[in-house]
Specification:
The protein is α+β, with helices and mostly antiparallel strands. The chain has one domain: 2-Layer Sandwich (Beta-Lactamase), CATH 3.30.450.40. The chain has four helices and six strands, in the order H-H-E-E-E-H-E-E-E-H. The chain is globular. The mean pLDDT is 93.
């Protein structure tokens, strides 16, 4: 199966996301295995957008546990309400952090991370079941465009993995 993503040359960020999402939908359609889908989604995002770290943390009991990712080694476990990921889980809303050094309680898995976005994923009961965590080595990388489209990416993942009758 051909899995390369194609984009219009010199497309702006919004256009790249608009071209990325239908291609991602085709990549993950009909696959419901959590680890497999999360692995390919993190790889596709990482490859297509070139961020420093791209991956998922999964809710397991009272903590987030490292899931599939692309990038350097990462923290294994994060408590609810701690750091950007734990805050996204506790508040059940996307966190856009232009400068991680200014985020109270930031967990520095890598000193190279400068900005971050974390998007929660919800199970069929509306509970946060995972978070998509993306780090950049540059300040202020993420904005409302990223929030909008990455939330759309997470809705695709939810539909295939967490809202399916295959569970």
């Amino acid at each position: 199966m051909e899995t390369g993503f194609t984009f219009t040359p010199n497309a702006d960020k919004s256009s790249r996301y608009s071209e990325f999402i239908p291609q991602l939908a085709l990549l993950i359609e009909d696959e419901h295995e959590e680890v497999s889908v999360l692995a390919n989604v993190s790889a596709a995002l990482h490859e297509c957008f070139g961020w420093f770290w791209t991956g998922f943390y999964l809710v397991r009991g009272d903590q987030l546990v490292l899931g599939p990712f692309q990038g350097s080694t990462a923290c294994y476990r994060i408590r609810k309400g701690r750091g950007v990921c734990g805050t996204a889980w506790a508040e059940a809303r996307t966190q856009v952090v232009p400068d991680v050094e200014q985020f109270p309680g930031h967990i520095a898995c890598s000193s190279l991370s400068r900005s971050e976005i974390v998007v929660p994923l919800y199970d069929k009961d509306g509970q946060v079941c995972a978070v998509l965590d993306i780090d950049s080595e540059h300040l202020a990388t993420f904005d409302e465009v990223d929030r909008h489209y990455l939330e759309e990416v997470c809705r695709l993942v939810e539909k295939n993995v967490y809202h399916t009758s295959q569970l």
